[in-house]
Sequence to fold (284 residues):
Amino acid sequence: MTTLIQAKNLSKSYGTHQALKSVDFSVERGRIVGLVGPNGAGKTTVLKAILGLTSYEGELKVLGLDPNRQRHEIMQKVSFIADVAVLPRWLKVSNALEFVTEVHPNFNLERAKHFLAKTNIPMSAKVKELSKGMVAQLHLALVMSIEAELLVLDEPTLGLDILYRKEFYNQLLAEFFDEGRSILVTTHQIEEIENLLTDLIFIRDGKIVLNDSMDKVSENYIEVMVSKDDAEKAEALNPVMQRDVFGRKVYLFEGVSREELEPLGELHSPSVADLFVAKMKEGK
Fold:
C-alpha cells in the first residue's frame, strides 16, 4: 500500500495559539479518509499544510514531495474543492473549461464535457445563473477531469440540499474514486459520509484523538443498551459515554470485548456522529 500523505510531529502556531500540536497521521492510496472535528480544531490548518498554503513545523510529505518547497509539483497531482462558491460568478461554463484547459496540464476537456452532458448545465450559462447544486456539479466535473491521485474536499456540499449532497457523493464514487486514488474529506455532515469512509480521523484542540480504519473502529467501539437493573454493572466497565434512549441507558465502550458486554443487553455499532460526540467530550 502506497502512502500518499505522511505527517509526523506536524505543528503550527498562530502567535500564541497552537493550532496543531505534534500531529501524526497518514493517508494511503485507495482510501477515503474523513477528517472530522469541531470549528477551530485544526482541520483547515491540516488541509492548508497539505496544499502548501501555510508554513508548519515537523515533517510532511504529500506524494513524496514537500508542500512548502514543491507546491507546484504537488498541485499537478492533487485536486481540491473548498466550497462550491469559489467559482467566479461572472464566469461562463464554457470559459471555465477553457481556463482549466490552459492552466492545468492534466485536465481532460473531453472528460469534463462528458460529465456535464449528464447534467442540465448550459455551456453558455454564467455561474451566477446556476443553482447551488449546479455549481457543485460544475465544480465536481472540473475536478474529476483532472488526472489527480489525491482529492481534498473541505466541506464540499455546504449549503446544498440533501438530494444534491447525495448525488455529489454518488458521482464522486462512481467517476473518481478507485484503488489508485484517495480522497481526504472534512465535513460536518458525518452521517451522510460514514458509509463511504474507509478511515476516520478525529481532531480536537489541535490534537488527533482518534485515527483508525472503519473496520478497527467497529471492532474497538461498541454500544450497549441496558436496563436500569444492569446499569451499575455497565458503569463498572468504565464506559466512555452514556445517554438515555426511551427510558433505557445506552453505554459506549472502547476496547471491551463483546463477550463481556453481551450479558448486559443489546449490542450495536455506534454511529460516527455518536462516537464523535463521545471523543470530543472525553476527558472534559
Summary: Residues 112 and 142 are 6 Å apart (CA to CA). The two ends are 37 Å apart (CA to CA). The mean pLDDT is 90. The chain has eleven helices and 13 strands.
